[in-house]
Amino acid sequence: MSKDADNIIPLYETHAQKWDDIRRGNAAKGLMEAEWLARFIGLLPHQGSVLDIGCGAGEPMAGHLIRSGFQLTGIDSSASLIDICRTRFPQQQWLVADMRELSLPQKFDGILAWNSFFHLQRDDQRRMFPRFATLATENAVLMFTSGTANGEAIGTFEGQPLYHSSLAPEEYRSLLSESGFEVVQYVENDPHCGHLTVWLCRKTS
After folding, report:
1. DSSP string across 137-204
2. Is 124 among the domain residues?
3. Residue 20, domain member (yes or no)
4. Closest CA to 184 of 163, 164, 204
5. Band (142; pLDDT cuts 50, 70, 90)
6. Which parts pass through the membrane (predicted)?
7. How do residues 95-141 score in pLDDT, each as one tens digit?
8. Cβ neighbours of 10 (radius 10 Å)
């Protein structure tokens, strides 16, 4: 499945406009992520800084945070998606970057990896937790989505394989703890949010 994992970046680059159309179309029917965004925002300082890892074209997640008064830095591996972000929200910071190699001089009050982190292979996911910690301010909030068990899965997007992987929940908890995060809330297959599995965490050390 490593070939499918290696195809994630070119897949989203090739179909950037289609992805944006789908995300905005779904959000127009009602923002299913609204409750989780409210929980995330509720833990952030007023007008704090947020790093959106795998921001796509900036809607609906980054856009909601920007409209809520937060300073947004978005990163995505697709240059075409970042171009859309820069046109849509020119006052924010948008960077073309691979999250596995992300190094930034600043730290952030909030870190979001919504439906992006789970496209990494499992060893790459493991290596991301110290990176999250390095990018986090004291008491920073981290929210990400994952699978429900250790393994790999292949979906499809525009007729091409779409790679996902996950660690076991107990390993995520261990990695979070080792990197100084505590789990504030964890919901598996949330029926109110498209059956996504969501982690809301806070930096404690």
Report:
1. EEEEEEEEEE-SSSEEEEEEETTEEEEEEE--HHHHHHHHHHTTEEEEEEEEEETTTTTEEEEEEEE-
2. yes
3. yes
4. 204
5. very high
6. none
7. 999 999 999 999 999 999 999 999 999 999 999 999 999 999 999 99
8. 12
CA gyration radius for the chain?
A: 16
CATH number at residue 122: 3.40.50.150
Q: How far apart are CA 157 and CA 152, in angstroms?
A: 16
For residue 111, the 8-state DSSP code is E
For residue 49, tell me if it sits in a domain: no
Render pLDDT for 167-195 as a digit per residue (tens, 0 to 9).
Answer: 999 999 999 999 999 999 999 999 999 99
Q: Which tokens belong to 89?
A: 């929200």
Buried b (16+ CB within 10 A) or exposed e, 185-202: ebeeebeebeebbbbbbb
Containing structural domain, residue 199: 2-24+33-42+56-203
